[in-house]
Each structure stands twice: as structure tokens, then as C-alpha cells.
Amino acid sequence: MDTATLQDLSVGQRATVLAISNDNPAYRRQLLAMGLIPGTSLMLVRVAPLGDPMELEVRGFKLSLRRAEAKAIKVEVNS
């Protein structure tokens, strides 16, 4: 299995969260509060026509993140 950042996923790919960058502690806390904790499975559902935002399915709900925000999330890609 490969590791990447969330922004590197393609539509339909599944991944598992490995870590969230600690560069911005306030943003990290927000992501953790939204359920993006290490070990969480997610899937990239779709990307807006201009590339931002991207829609994820996490724990049964939809979450939209900008690509710049998604690069803070390290994932393990599940084929």
C-alpha cells in the first residue's frame, strides 16, 4: 500500500488516515473534530470542476475540503 497526502487521491480511491500535520494546531483540531483521526477510512467522492473543493465520504457523511487543506493529511491508499 502506498502513502500519499489526501490531495493526491483520485476520484473513487479509498484511503486510511495515517497522520495530520501539526503545522497549524487550530486547523488540526478542526479536522480531528470532524472525524479525520488516524485509522479512519475515507473515499474521495468527487472534485469540483476547477479542482477545489474535493468531497470526501468519511464515517457515513460528506465532507468538503480544499486541496491546500487536504495536503496536511497523510493517508495510506487502499486500492
Automatic annotation (TrEMBL):
Annotated protein name in UniProt: Ferrous iron transport protein A
Species this chain originates from: Zooshikella harenae
Alphabetized UniProt keyword annotations: Iron
Classification via Pfam families: FeoA (PF04023)
Signal peptide stretch: none
Superkingdom of origin: Bacteria
Domain named Ferrous iron transporter FeoA-like: residues: 4-77
InterPro entries: Fe-transptr_FeoA-like (IPR007167), FeoA (IPR052713), FeoA_core_dom (IPR038157), Transcriptional_repressor_C (IPR008988)
